[in-house]
Amino acid sequence: MKRDIPIANATPSAVDTRNLTGDGSSASGLTADRLEVHSTSTPFHDVRALAADTTLLHIGPRKSGTTAIQSAFHLGRAQVREAGVLYPGHRPAQSKALRALRTADGLPINPKDAKLARAMQQELADWRGRTLLSAEMLEHADADQIESLISRLNRDNLQVLITARPISKQLPSLWQQLTKRGKISDALEPWIKALVSDPDSPEWHGQRVDWLSERWGRIVGLDRVHVMLVDPKQRAETIATVERLLGLAPYALQPARSNRGMTMREADMARALRRAAAEQNPSPQQSRDLDLTINRYLAARTPAADEMHPAMPRSLRSQTDELQARVAANLATGGYHLIGDLGTWQRTEDRDFADLENRVVDLRETPDDPVVDMVRELLDAHADGHTRGLVQATVPHQSAGGDEPRSTRIWQRASQQLRRS
User: Fold this and answer.
1) Among candidates 147, 69, 126, 133, which has minimal Cα distance to 96?
2) Region 318-340 average pLDDT
Protein backbone atom coordinates (compact mmCIF):
# COMPACT_ATOMS: atom_id res chain seq x y z
CA MET A 1 0.00 0.00 0.00
CA LYS A 2 1.40 3.38 -0.96
CA ARG A 3 2.03 5.78 1.92
CA ASP A 4 2.12 9.52 1.40
CA ILE A 5 3.09 12.69 3.28
CA PRO A 6 1.45 13.84 5.44
CA ILE A 7 0.03 10.63 6.85
CA ALA A 8 -1.62 9.80 10.13
CA ASN A 9 0.84 8.62 12.74
CA ALA A 10 0.53 4.93 13.38
CA THR A 11 1.86 3.24 16.50
CA PRO A 12 5.20 1.76 15.40
CA SER A 13 5.91 -1.78 16.49
CA ALA A 14 9.49 -0.71 17.22
CA VAL A 15 8.45 1.47 20.17
CA ASP A 16 9.47 -0.11 23.46
CA THR A 17 9.61 1.75 26.78
CA ARG A 18 10.00 -1.23 29.10
CA ASN A 19 13.42 -0.12 30.31
CA LEU A 20 12.39 3.38 31.40
CA THR A 21 11.11 4.80 34.67
CA GLY A 22 10.07 8.24 35.84
CA ASP A 23 8.29 11.07 34.07
CA GLY A 24 10.42 14.11 34.99
CA SER A 25 12.34 16.09 32.43
CA SER A 26 15.53 18.14 32.28
CA ALA A 27 17.20 20.66 30.00
CA SER A 28 18.30 17.77 27.81
CA GLY A 29 14.71 16.59 27.36
CA LEU A 30 15.45 13.30 29.12
CA THR A 31 13.84 11.64 32.10
CA ALA A 32 14.95 12.93 35.48
CA ASP A 33 14.83 9.46 37.03
CA ARG A 34 16.92 7.02 35.09
CA LEU A 35 16.94 3.25 35.50
CA GLU A 36 20.49 1.95 35.26
CA VAL A 37 20.80 -1.14 33.08
CA HIS A 38 24.15 -2.62 32.20
CA SER A 39 24.93 -2.18 28.52
CA THR A 40 26.32 -5.04 26.45
CA SER A 41 29.67 -4.61 24.72
CA THR A 42 31.14 -6.17 21.58
CA PRO A 43 34.65 -5.70 20.11
CA PHE A 44 34.71 -4.41 16.53
CA HIS A 45 35.79 -7.72 15.00
CA ASP A 46 33.11 -9.72 16.84
CA VAL A 47 30.10 -7.75 15.61
CA ARG A 48 27.40 -10.04 14.20
CA ALA A 49 24.87 -9.25 11.49
CA LEU A 50 21.48 -7.94 12.58
CA ALA A 51 18.29 -9.76 11.59
CA ALA A 52 17.54 -9.96 7.87
CA ASP A 53 14.59 -7.54 8.12
CA THR A 54 16.50 -4.83 10.03
CA THR A 55 16.38 -1.16 9.11
CA LEU A 56 19.50 0.46 10.59
CA LEU A 57 19.01 4.20 11.13
CA HIS A 58 22.34 6.04 11.55
CA ILE A 59 21.75 9.40 13.27
CA GLY A 60 25.30 10.76 13.64
CA PRO A 61 26.20 12.97 15.42
CA ARG A 62 28.24 15.29 13.23
CA LYS A 63 32.01 14.87 12.92
CA SER A 64 31.95 11.24 14.01
CA GLY A 65 32.59 9.49 10.69
CA THR A 66 29.18 10.19 9.17
CA THR A 67 30.53 11.54 5.87
CA ALA A 68 32.75 8.49 5.40
CA ILE A 69 29.88 6.06 6.00
CA GLN A 70 27.51 7.93 3.71
CA SER A 71 30.09 8.32 0.95
CA ALA A 72 31.04 4.64 1.06
CA PHE A 73 27.44 3.38 0.82
CA HIS A 74 26.57 5.98 -1.80
CA LEU A 75 29.39 4.79 -4.06
CA GLY A 76 28.61 1.15 -3.29
CA ARG A 77 24.81 1.49 -3.55
CA ALA A 78 24.47 -1.00 -6.43
CA GLN A 79 27.04 -3.34 -4.91
CA VAL A 80 25.34 -3.59 -1.51
CA ARG A 81 21.90 -3.94 -3.12
CA GLU A 82 23.10 -7.06 -4.91
CA ALA A 83 24.25 -8.32 -1.50
CA GLY A 84 20.78 -7.77 0.00
CA VAL A 85 21.14 -4.29 1.55
CA LEU A 86 19.15 -1.24 0.47
CA TYR A 87 20.65 2.25 0.71
CA PRO A 88 17.65 4.29 -0.52
CA GLY A 89 17.71 7.28 -2.82
CA HIS A 90 20.39 8.59 -5.15
CA ARG A 91 22.33 10.91 -2.83
CA PRO A 92 25.06 10.31 -0.24
CA ALA A 93 22.68 11.00 2.67
CA GLN A 94 18.90 10.97 3.07
CA SER A 95 18.72 14.18 5.10
CA LYS A 96 16.01 15.93 3.10
CA ALA A 97 13.68 12.94 2.94
CA LEU A 98 14.13 12.12 6.62
CA ARG A 99 13.66 15.78 7.59
CA ALA A 100 10.26 15.70 5.88
CA LEU A 101 9.32 12.42 7.53
CA ARG A 102 10.17 13.69 11.01
CA THR A 103 8.03 16.83 10.57
CA ALA A 104 4.86 16.70 12.67
CA ASP A 105 1.45 16.77 10.99
CA GLY A 106 0.21 20.25 10.16
CA LEU A 107 3.66 21.82 9.89
CA PRO A 108 4.96 23.04 6.51
CA ILE A 109 7.18 20.73 4.47
CA ASN A 110 9.33 21.72 1.52
CA PRO A 111 7.57 20.23 -1.54
CA LYS A 112 10.84 18.87 -2.94
CA ASP A 113 11.67 17.24 0.39
CA ALA A 114 8.18 15.75 0.55
CA LYS A 115 8.66 14.26 -2.92
CA LEU A 116 11.93 12.65 -1.84
CA ALA A 117 10.23 11.33 1.30
CA ARG A 118 7.39 9.75 -0.68
CA ALA A 119 9.91 8.08 -2.98
CA MET A 120 11.80 6.74 0.04
CA GLN A 121 8.62 5.40 1.61
CA GLN A 122 7.76 3.57 -1.59
CA GLU A 123 11.30 2.20 -1.93
CA LEU A 124 11.14 0.90 1.64
CA ALA A 125 7.72 -0.63 1.13
CA ASP A 126 8.95 -2.55 -1.92
CA TRP A 127 12.13 -3.86 -0.27
CA ARG A 128 12.54 -7.12 1.60
CA GLY A 129 15.91 -7.20 3.33
CA ARG A 130 18.28 -5.10 5.42
CA THR A 131 18.26 -1.33 4.96
CA LEU A 132 20.59 1.51 5.94
CA LEU A 133 19.44 5.11 6.42
CA SER A 134 21.86 7.87 7.44
CA ALA A 135 21.42 11.54 8.33
CA GLU A 136 23.37 13.33 11.06
CA MET A 137 20.77 16.10 11.27
CA LEU A 138 18.66 13.61 13.25
CA GLU A 139 20.93 14.33 16.23
CA HIS A 140 18.66 17.33 16.90
CA ALA A 141 15.34 15.44 16.76
CA ASP A 142 13.13 15.73 19.83
CA ALA A 143 10.73 13.04 21.08
CA ASP A 144 7.82 14.17 18.89
CA GLN A 145 9.98 14.26 15.78
CA ILE A 146 11.44 10.83 16.54
CA GLU A 147 7.97 9.32 16.95
CA SER A 148 6.77 10.99 13.74
CA LEU A 149 9.76 9.64 11.80
CA ILE A 150 9.44 6.10 13.13
CA SER A 151 5.73 5.88 12.42
CA ARG A 152 6.17 7.09 8.85
CA LEU A 153 9.11 4.80 8.16
CA ASN A 154 6.77 2.01 9.30
CA ARG A 155 9.54 -0.55 9.80
CA ASP A 156 8.91 -3.55 12.04
CA ASN A 157 12.56 -3.97 13.08
CA LEU A 158 14.10 -0.52 13.36
CA GLN A 159 17.52 -0.26 15.03
CA VAL A 160 19.44 2.96 15.71
CA LEU A 161 23.19 3.44 15.21
CA ILE A 162 25.10 6.26 16.92
CA THR A 163 28.74 6.84 16.03
CA ALA A 164 30.33 8.23 19.19
CA ARG A 165 33.60 10.10 18.93
CA PRO A 166 35.47 11.03 22.16
CA ILE A 167 34.57 14.52 23.37
CA SER A 168 38.24 15.56 23.36
CA LYS A 169 38.30 14.99 19.59
CA GLN A 170 34.67 15.83 18.79
CA LEU A 171 34.52 19.43 20.02
CA PRO A 172 37.56 20.89 18.18
CA SER A 173 36.40 19.20 14.99
CA LEU A 174 32.86 20.51 15.43
CA TRP A 175 34.13 24.05 16.08
CA GLN A 176 36.06 24.15 12.82
CA GLN A 177 33.06 22.83 10.86
CA LEU A 178 30.69 25.41 12.35
CA THR A 179 33.30 28.10 11.72
CA LYS A 180 33.73 26.96 8.12
CA ARG A 181 29.98 27.21 7.55
CA GLY A 182 29.66 30.58 9.25
CA LYS A 183 27.43 29.23 12.02
CA ILE A 184 29.64 30.63 14.78
CA SER A 185 32.19 33.44 14.95
CA ASP A 186 33.75 32.69 18.35
CA ALA A 187 37.40 31.77 18.74
CA LEU A 188 38.08 28.14 19.61
CA GLU A 189 39.03 28.47 23.28
CA PRO A 190 36.07 30.55 24.55
CA TRP A 191 33.60 28.47 22.53
CA ILE A 192 34.82 25.16 23.96
CA LYS A 193 35.23 26.59 27.47
CA ALA A 194 31.57 27.70 27.51
CA LEU A 195 30.45 24.17 26.63
CA VAL A 196 32.75 22.20 28.91
CA SER A 197 32.09 24.51 31.84
CA ASP A 198 28.36 23.75 31.63
CA PRO A 199 28.00 20.03 30.77
CA ASP A 200 24.24 20.11 31.41
CA SER A 201 23.57 22.99 29.01
CA PRO A 202 20.92 22.42 26.30
CA GLU A 203 23.67 23.38 23.83
CA TRP A 204 24.85 19.76 24.19
CA HIS A 205 21.49 18.48 22.88
CA GLY A 206 22.89 16.87 19.74
CA GLN A 207 26.46 16.24 20.84
CA ARG A 208 26.38 14.39 24.15
CA VAL A 209 26.03 10.81 22.97
CA ASP A 210 24.68 9.64 26.34
CA TRP A 211 21.76 12.07 25.99
CA LEU A 212 21.35 11.16 22.32
CA SER A 213 21.28 7.43 23.12
CA GLU A 214 18.71 7.81 25.88
CA ARG A 215 16.49 10.16 23.89
CA TRP A 216 16.19 7.65 21.04
CA GLY A 217 16.23 4.63 23.35
CA ARG A 218 13.16 5.89 25.18
CA ILE A 219 11.19 5.49 21.95
CA VAL A 220 12.76 2.66 19.94
CA GLY A 221 13.86 0.62 22.96
CA LEU A 222 17.22 0.83 24.73
CA ASP A 223 18.32 -2.58 23.45
CA ARG A 224 17.77 -1.37 19.87
CA VAL A 225 20.36 1.41 20.21
CA HIS A 226 23.87 0.53 19.00
CA VAL A 227 26.63 2.94 20.06
CA MET A 228 29.83 2.59 18.05
CA LEU A 229 32.75 3.89 20.12
CA VAL A 230 34.82 5.37 17.30
CA ASP A 231 38.54 4.72 17.71
CA PRO A 232 40.74 7.21 15.78
CA LYS A 233 43.52 4.60 15.74
CA GLN A 234 41.24 2.13 13.95
CA ARG A 235 39.57 4.35 11.36
CA ALA A 236 38.81 1.46 9.00
CA GLU A 237 36.57 -0.11 11.65
CA THR A 238 33.99 2.68 11.38
CA ILE A 239 32.73 1.61 7.94
CA ALA A 240 33.62 -2.06 8.53
CA THR A 241 31.39 -2.18 11.63
CA VAL A 242 28.40 -0.92 9.65
CA GLU A 243 29.14 -3.52 6.99
CA ARG A 244 29.20 -6.28 9.63
CA LEU A 245 25.91 -5.11 11.18
CA LEU A 246 24.30 -5.33 7.75
CA GLY A 247 25.73 -8.76 6.93
CA LEU A 248 28.22 -7.44 4.38
CA ALA A 249 31.87 -8.41 3.99
CA PRO A 250 33.94 -5.89 5.99
CA TYR A 251 36.43 -3.53 4.31
CA ALA A 252 34.75 -3.91 0.89
CA LEU A 253 33.44 -0.31 0.77
CA GLN A 254 35.60 2.80 0.61
CA PRO A 255 34.56 6.46 0.96
CA ALA A 256 35.09 8.85 -1.93
CA ARG A 257 36.88 11.49 0.07
CA SER A 258 37.83 12.61 3.52
CA ASN A 259 35.91 15.51 5.04
CA ARG A 260 39.14 17.37 5.84
CA GLY A 261 39.00 19.76 8.74
CA MET A 262 40.51 23.23 8.73
CA THR A 263 43.78 24.10 10.37
CA MET A 264 43.82 26.97 12.84
CA ARG A 265 45.30 29.25 10.17
CA GLU A 266 42.51 28.35 7.75
CA ALA A 267 39.88 28.85 10.44
CA ASP A 268 41.30 32.29 11.21
CA MET A 269 41.14 33.09 7.49
CA ALA A 270 37.52 31.92 7.23
CA ARG A 271 36.48 34.01 10.22
CA ALA A 272 38.27 37.06 8.84
CA LEU A 273 36.71 36.57 5.41
CA ARG A 274 33.25 36.57 6.94
CA ARG A 275 33.98 39.69 8.99
CA ALA A 276 35.20 41.47 5.85
CA ALA A 277 32.12 40.34 3.92
CA ALA A 278 29.78 41.40 6.74
CA GLU A 279 30.92 45.00 6.27
CA GLN A 280 29.45 44.87 2.76
CA ASN A 281 26.00 43.82 4.06
CA PRO A 282 25.79 40.76 1.78
CA SER A 283 22.46 39.34 0.72
CA PRO A 284 21.50 35.77 1.76
CA GLN A 285 22.50 34.56 -1.69
CA GLN A 286 25.85 36.33 -1.48
CA SER A 287 26.45 34.73 1.92
CA ARG A 288 25.77 31.29 0.46
CA ASP A 289 28.09 32.06 -2.43
CA LEU A 290 30.77 33.12 0.03
CA ASP A 291 30.44 29.69 1.67
CA LEU A 292 31.22 28.11 -1.71
CA THR A 293 34.16 30.44 -2.21
CA ILE A 294 35.65 29.41 1.13
CA ASN A 295 34.99 25.72 0.51
CA ARG A 296 36.56 25.78 -2.95
CA TYR A 297 39.61 27.60 -1.65
CA LEU A 298 40.09 25.09 1.18
CA ALA A 299 39.57 22.14 -1.16
CA ALA A 300 42.30 23.41 -3.45
CA ARG A 301 44.72 24.20 -0.64
CA THR A 302 47.28 21.85 0.93
CA PRO A 303 48.07 22.91 4.51
CA ALA A 304 51.71 23.31 5.46
CA ALA A 305 53.12 20.50 7.59
CA ASP A 306 53.62 22.80 10.58
CA GLU A 307 50.10 24.26 10.60
CA MET A 308 48.35 23.64 13.89
CA HIS A 309 45.04 21.77 13.94
CA PRO A 310 42.23 22.65 16.38
CA ALA A 311 42.67 20.96 19.76
CA MET A 312 41.18 21.12 23.23
CA PRO A 313 42.60 23.94 25.39
CA ARG A 314 45.12 22.46 27.81
CA SER A 315 43.57 24.49 30.63
CA LEU A 316 40.40 22.38 30.30
CA ARG A 317 42.10 18.98 30.60
CA SER A 318 40.65 18.03 33.99
CA GLN A 319 37.15 19.23 33.10
CA THR A 320 37.28 17.32 29.83
CA ASP A 321 38.43 14.14 31.58
CA GLU A 322 35.57 14.43 34.08
CA LEU A 323 32.95 15.01 31.38
CA GLN A 324 34.21 12.20 29.20
CA ALA A 325 34.16 9.83 32.20
CA ARG A 326 30.62 10.95 33.02
CA VAL A 327 29.39 10.25 29.50
CA ALA A 328 31.15 6.88 29.49
CA ALA A 329 29.51 5.91 32.79
CA ASN A 330 26.08 6.78 31.42
CA LEU A 331 26.72 4.70 28.32
CA ALA A 332 27.89 1.76 30.43
CA THR A 333 24.68 1.76 32.48
CA GLY A 334 22.24 2.76 29.74
CA GLY A 335 21.21 -0.67 28.50
CA TYR A 336 22.56 -0.12 24.98
CA HIS A 337 24.70 -2.27 22.72
CA LEU A 338 28.19 -0.76 22.78
CA ILE A 339 30.59 -1.57 19.96
CA GLY A 340 34.27 -1.05 20.69
CA ASP A 341 36.22 -0.54 23.92
CA LEU A 342 34.68 1.93 26.37
CA GLY A 343 37.86 2.16 28.46
CA THR A 344 39.95 3.15 25.46
CA TRP A 345 37.26 5.56 24.28
CA GLN A 346 37.09 7.27 27.65
CA ARG A 347 40.81 7.97 28.05
CA THR A 348 42.07 11.30 26.74
CA GLU A 349 45.54 11.72 25.27
CA ASP A 350 48.11 14.48 25.69
CA ARG A 351 48.00 15.18 21.97
CA ASP A 352 44.29 16.05 22.26
CA PHE A 353 45.25 19.24 24.13
CA ALA A 354 47.30 22.30 23.27
CA ASP A 355 48.12 25.79 24.51
CA LEU A 356 45.94 28.02 22.37
CA GLU A 357 46.28 31.69 21.71
CA ASN A 358 43.00 33.56 21.83
CA ARG A 359 43.73 35.25 18.54
CA VAL A 360 41.49 37.72 16.77
CA VAL A 361 42.73 38.13 13.22
CA ASP A 362 41.81 41.38 11.51
CA LEU A 363 42.62 41.23 7.80
CA ARG A 364 41.83 44.91 7.47
CA GLU A 365 45.12 45.80 9.14
CA THR A 366 46.71 45.65 5.69
CA PRO A 367 44.85 47.96 3.26
CA ASP A 368 45.83 45.87 0.22
CA ASP A 369 45.08 42.49 1.79
CA PRO A 370 44.10 40.10 -1.04
CA VAL A 371 41.39 38.41 1.01
CA VAL A 372 39.54 41.64 1.76
CA ASP A 373 40.00 42.81 -1.83
CA MET A 374 38.60 39.54 -3.15
CA VAL A 375 35.46 39.73 -1.01
CA ARG A 376 34.79 43.36 -1.84
CA GLU A 377 35.39 42.98 -5.56
CA LEU A 378 33.25 39.88 -5.80
CA LEU A 379 30.39 41.53 -3.92
CA ASP A 380 30.74 44.60 -6.14
CA ALA A 381 30.65 42.41 -9.23
CA HIS A 382 27.49 40.74 -7.93
CA ALA A 383 25.83 44.09 -7.21
CA ASP A 384 26.78 45.46 -10.64
CA GLY A 385 25.17 42.52 -12.38
CA HIS A 386 28.43 41.22 -13.87
CA THR A 387 27.82 37.77 -12.46
CA ARG A 388 24.95 35.73 -11.13
CA GLY A 389 26.79 35.30 -7.86
CA LEU A 390 30.04 34.35 -6.29
CA VAL A 391 29.53 30.76 -7.43
CA GLN A 392 30.92 31.63 -10.86
CA ALA A 393 33.96 33.09 -9.19
CA THR A 394 34.78 29.74 -7.61
CA VAL A 395 34.89 27.91 -10.93
CA PRO A 396 37.34 29.48 -13.38
CA HIS A 397 36.17 28.93 -16.95
CA GLN A 398 36.15 30.48 -20.39
CA SER A 399 33.06 32.19 -21.72
CA ALA A 400 31.70 31.31 -25.16
CA GLY A 401 33.55 34.21 -26.75
CA GLY A 402 36.84 33.31 -25.11
CA ASP A 403 36.82 36.25 -22.69
CA GLU A 404 36.96 35.45 -19.00
CA PRO A 405 34.15 36.92 -16.85
CA ARG A 406 35.23 39.65 -14.45
CA SER A 407 34.43 37.45 -11.44
CA THR A 408 36.70 34.71 -12.77
CA ARG A 409 39.62 37.11 -13.19
CA ILE A 410 39.08 38.37 -9.62
CA TRP A 411 39.00 34.83 -8.23
CA GLN A 412 42.08 33.68 -10.11
CA ARG A 413 44.13 36.67 -9.01
CA ALA A 414 42.99 36.51 -5.39
CA SER A 415 43.42 32.74 -5.12
CA GLN A 416 46.99 32.98 -6.36
CA GLN A 417 47.73 35.62 -3.74
CA LEU A 418 46.01 33.57 -1.06
CA ARG A 419 48.12 30.51 -1.82
CA ARG A 420 51.26 32.60 -1.39
CA SER A 421 50.06 34.14 1.87
Assistant:
1) 133
2) 96
